[in-house]
Amino acid sequence: MGQGAKILAALAALLLALGLVACGGDDESEPAKTGATQEQPSGGGSGAAEGEDGAEKNGTGGDRAEGAGGAGEPAGDFKPEPHEDSGGGGEQFRVKGGDNSVQEFGEEAGEAEFEAAATALHNFLDARADGYWAAACSYLSDEVATSLEKLAAQADAVEATSCAEILGKLTNPAAKGALRKEARQADVGSLRVEGERSFVIYRGPDGAILAMPMAQEDGEWKVASLAGTPLN
Questions:
Q1: CA spacing 20 to 30 A to 20: which of 68, 85, 121, 126?
Q2: Do the Cβ atoms of 20 and 170 come closer than 8 Å?
């Protein structure tokens, strides 16, 4: 296998981890939405702002996304969905006799941090599910977005240079139903924090309990992985 093929395989594996190149989708109807709308935090950390030249900027000032891949949707057009989270803390997710390193990581966050991290996760999942690639990338940590861009830059067959373009071009439309299902059903139960690192523990589709690493950048929580890790 040549270097280009290896890089493409690495990208495919990365996207498979979050269902972006799934071979099948789930087009079930969306459930009714309740609760208060999760707004994009002010201050630029989680939302995308438009620069003087009209290019979409991420919250830390980088040019993460111009447009939204094939969808042609700039980050500024993304409207966060309303969500309600059950909370309850990490204790409820402990597995008897299992590895509880995430459930016991750091300390349980306070209400304000919990809500901020949960909002970032929900907005990332919603933007990704509906094809707002620029907005989705704006909720990713710089490390994750940069790693994705570096992988794509080394693959000649991937004609994309930004995080948004990469997600847009490599996402299989057949995965849209599965991505929407995860976004709509995500229910955050815990935020375990230690310094500038944390894990959001949430319930996903089909009873899955998932942990999503988060990173604090400029005082705001960002999603630090492209997919949650199953805990059950």
A1: 85
A2: yes
- Whole-angstrom Cα distance, residue 169 to residue 158? 8
> Distance between CA atoms of 124 and 225, rounded to whole angstroms?
11
Looking at domain 64-230, its CATH architecture is Roll (3.10)
Highest mean pLDDT (candidates 51-60, 118-127, 176-185): 118-127
Gap between the Cα atoms of 182 and 102, Å rounded: 21
Q: DSSP string of the chain? A: --HHHHHHHHHHHHHHTTTTT-S----PPPPPP-S-B-PPPSSSSSS-EE-TTS-EE-TTS----SSBTBT---GGG--PPB-------GGGG--TTS--TTTTSSEEPPHHHHHHHHHHHHHHHHHHHTT-HHHHHHTB-HHHHHHHHHHHHT-TT----SHHHHHHHH--GGGHHHHHHHHHH-EEEEEEEETTEEEEEEE-GGG-EEEEEEEEETTEEEE-SSSPEE--
Nearest to 204 by CA among 175, 223, 182, 184: 182
Q: For 183, what's the count of Cα atoms within 13 Å in the CB-facing half-sphere?
A: 28
Residue at 59: amino acid letter: G
Query: What end-to-end distance do the CA atoms of the chain give, in Å?
Result: 35
In the chain, what are the domain boundaries?
A: 64-230
pTM assigned to the model: 0.72
Helix axes 3-16, 142-153, angle to 10 degrees: 140
* Rounded-to-integer distance, Cα 226 and Cα 220, Å: 18
Average of per-residue pLDDT across 80-88: 92
